Amino acid sequence: MPAFRFEAIDAAGKPQKGVLEADSARGARTQLRGQGLTPLVVEPAASRTRGAREARLALGRRLSQREQAILTRQLASLLVAGLPLGEALAVLTEQAERDYIRELMAAIRAEVLGGHSFANALAQHPRDFPDIYRAIVAAGEHTGKLGIVLSRLADYIEQRNALKQKIVLAFTYPAIVTIIAFAIVTFLLSYVVPQVVNVFASTKQALPLLTVVMMALSGFVRHWWWVVLIAVALAAWIVRAILRQPAARLAFDGWLLGAPLAGKLVRGYNTVRFASTLGILSAAGVPILRALQAAGETLSNKAMRANVDEAIVRVREGTSLSRALSNTRTFPPVLVHLIRSGEATGDVTTMLDRAAEGEARELERRTMFLTSLLEPLLILAMGGVVLVIVLAVMLPIIELNNLVR
User: Fold this and answer.
1) Dihedral of the CA atoms 106, 108, 112, 115 (nearest 10)?
2) 39-to-15, 43, 140 alpha-carbon distances in Å
3) 8 A C-beta contact, residue 122 and residue 85
4) pLDDT at 162 over 70
5) Most buried residue among 117, 206, 223, 348 by CB atoms closer than 10 A?
6) Which of 168, 179, 77, 143 is nearest to 363 (CA)?
7) What is the pLDDT of residues 235-277, one digit of tens each?
8) How far is CA 298 from CA 68, 206, 291, 295, 350, in A?
9) How many other CB atoms sit within 10 Å of the CB of residue 384?
10) What is the spatial order of strands in the sheet that 38-44 belongs to?
11) Percent of the chain, pLDDT > 70?
């Protein structure tokens, strides 16, 4: 039965809004009048959700990662308990705290009851449910293990969110230190240096080279700062436009994998996503080729995705998964060894989960190590810049002292 979003007022003139099910919009208005409400707006929940999503997005009205994980966990629990999908979605609609989530669940339920698959219903809301989410759901429907797949998917989303939060928090302090350092240096160059050095410039005395250079830099910062902003914005736009080209993005991602510090972080983050997704699909009984294709789509690095495509070709030709991945020379050896052990014991899923957990811990350790190096380096760099500025100010004073003597 279709779902309709309504806005109405009661006998006291108090506004009411929500979602109800009816055969048609006319039937929905009849239900509202039977409840003593005067309908103002009655429209399909699906059209409301799709039509207003862009406007809501600007106001933060979309499904957050936390809400996505909670909804997935709740739906998995209801399905594992034996509740039909339509009734499970109805329960989520009733329990939703936000109007947006309530309308979203009602729209999805209306699509499911209308004969569409759950994955196709989610495809109507691509911003709330990305491609890989829908691919995993489709695999679960195909194998008849939707509840189990959603449960593992909820675990994956929660672990991914926790890992992402740890990485962001680890780099937050260095970012704040960098911003403060730039602000302090800009203030010194634009205000302090001119006030002090101009006193000595008026004496017609030859100034030290460092002071002359600092005065020129100060004048550039004061008068041409807007040129720097435009140049930075233009450079960012050009780089972004270049990276939109498939060949350029592939070359850049390939270079990034070999970068001294960032390469290991990028490789580790993508390995965690790949192993986790492949483990979920393997546990659901998805064929290996289809699972590899879906897991490859989760990779943000195009070079690694291209290597997975090559591995899919080798697996299709009869090569084992571990050998196909080892030939790419992209994934960590630990992942390949664990998959080989899983193939020997017949339990690839468990080994994939272990590989994902191990790579997540290793990624967290590398992130903390990198940030522990960045913090003192940033402080030293800031101290060095301030020292140069102080020397540029003090050198004329020292020379003037010598002349007085």
Assistant:
1) 110
2) 10, 11, 40
3) no
4) yes
5) 348
6) 168
7) 999 999 998 998 999 999 999 988 888 888 899 889 998 998 8
8) 17, 63, 11, 5, 20
9) 10
10) 15-21, 3-9, 38-44
11) 91
Residue range 379-390: mean pLDDT, rounded: 86
Instruction: Return the closest-CA partner of residue 394 out of 191, 193, 186.
Output: 193
Query: What DSSP line would sit under 135-153, residue for residue?
Result: HHHHHHHHHT-HHHHHHHH
**85 and 149 Cβ atoms separated by less than 8 Å:** no
Give the predicted TM-score (pTM) of the model. 0.71
Dist CA 255 CA 258 (whole Å):
5
Nearest to 22 by CA among 43, 46, 1, 49: 1
Cα angle, residue 209 at apex, residues 203 and 215 outer, rounded to 5°: 65
Kindly report the average pLDDT of the chain as a whole number.
82
Burial of 331: CB neighbours in 10 Å, binned 0-12, 13-18, 19+: buried
Two structure tokens written together for 230? 């435009």
What CA–CA distance (Å, rounded) separates 303 from 253? 6
Both structure tokens of 23: 């055969």
Q: Is the pLDDT of residue 53 over 70?
A: no
| Distance in angstroms (rounded) separating the CA atoms of residues 117 and 85 | 10
DSSP 3: E
56-112 pLDDT, tens per residue?
A: 434 446 788 888 889 999 999 999 888 888 889 888 888 888 878 888 888 888 888
In whole angstroms, give the CA distance from residue 300 to residue 243.
13
Q: What is the pLDDT of residue 202?
A: 65
Token reading at 372: 């522990």
Residue 70 · residue 76 · CB < 8 Å? no
Entry field: residues in the chain: 405
pLDDT of residue 28: 77
The encoded tokens of residue 354 equal 């272990």
The DSSP secondary structure of 67-80, one letter per residue, reads HHHHHHHHHHHHHH
Structure tokens at 44: 């399909």
